[in-house]
């Protein structure tokens, strides 16, 4: 048995054993995976063991394992993200836009009501400072109302199926 392992073979012999090209065998000799014992001569036993180690482990095997690990990590991250979306840990852009639409419509409505509420207070007012103070108080009241509307929003206000009547929809 040891006589077989000590046999000398050519790159063509090794290529035929491993189903590769002679160029591949010479490249493995060039990168030090297998050792030449002469011009186009290799020790069969040492070369076979080295090439098997190269194909099953070595740098290529490590790269394949790293790639598999990256793929597993990416798949796990996608699955976690899908679960988080399902659990509504993220809000979709459309839902945020809808909520902002509600907020800005509320602000617009509250501010547009200021003249109607302020007109009676300001109708006969002649003092500029008092006039400004009353108008400012009405604007602050409108903003406070909008602030209250914001704090009264619930999670459901951000999701589909909730009061979809936004201007422009």
> How much helix is in the residues?
55-70%
Mass-distribution shape = rod-shaped
Counted by DSSP, the helix tally is 8
- Could you state the order of secondary-structure elements as H and E? HEHHEEHHHHH
Largest beta-sheet details: 3 strands, antiparallel
Query: Could you report the average pLDDT, rounded to the nearest whole number?
Result: 82
Write down the domain tally. 3
Secondary structure class reads mainly alpha
Q: How big is the Rg? A: 39 Å
Quaternary assembly: single chain
Q: pLDDT below 50 for ≥5 consecutive residues: which ranges?
A: 162-169
Query: How large a portion of the residues is in β-strands, by DSSP E?
Result: under 5%
Break the fold down into its secondary structure elements and pairings.
Elements: H1 2-5, E1 8-9, H2 11-18, H3 22-30, E2 36-38, E3 41-43, H4 44-56, H5 58-86, H6 93-112, H7 114-122, H8 128-151
Antiparallel strand pairs: 1-3, 2-3
Structure characterization notes:
This protein has 169 residues and is mainly α. The protein folds into three domains: 2-56, Orthogonal Bundle (Arc Repressor Mutant, subunit A); 64-90; 93-158. 69% of the residues lie in helices and 5% in strands. It is built from eight helices and three strands; from the N terminus they run H-E-H-H-E-E-H-H-H-H-H. The protein has a three-stranded antiparallel beta sheet with strand order 1-3-2. The radius of gyration is 39 Å and the shape is rod-shaped. Residues 162-169 have low confidence and may be disordered. It comes from Burkholderia cepacia.
């Amino acid at each position: 048995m040891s006589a077989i392992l000590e046999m000398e073979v050519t790159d063509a012999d090794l290529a035929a054993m491993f189903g590769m090209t002679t160029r591949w065998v010479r490249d493995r000799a060039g990168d030090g995976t297998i050792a030449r014992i002469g011009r186009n001569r290799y020790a069969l036993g040492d070369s076979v063991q080295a090439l098997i180690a190269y194909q099953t482990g070595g740098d290529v095997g490590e790269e394949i394992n790293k790639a598999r690990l990256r793929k597993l990590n990416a798949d796990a991250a996608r699955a976690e993200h899908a679960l988080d979306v399902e659990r509504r840990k993220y809000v979709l852009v459309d839902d945020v836009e809808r909520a902002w639409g509600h907020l800005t419509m509320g602000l617009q409505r509250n501010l547009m009501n200021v003249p109607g509420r302020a007109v009676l207070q300001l109708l006969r007012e002649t003092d500029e400072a008092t006039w400004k103070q009353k108008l400012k108080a009405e604007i602050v009241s409108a903003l406070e109302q909008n602030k209250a509307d914001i704090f009264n929003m619930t999670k459901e206000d951000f999701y589909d199926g909730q009061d979809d009547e936004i201007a422009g929809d």
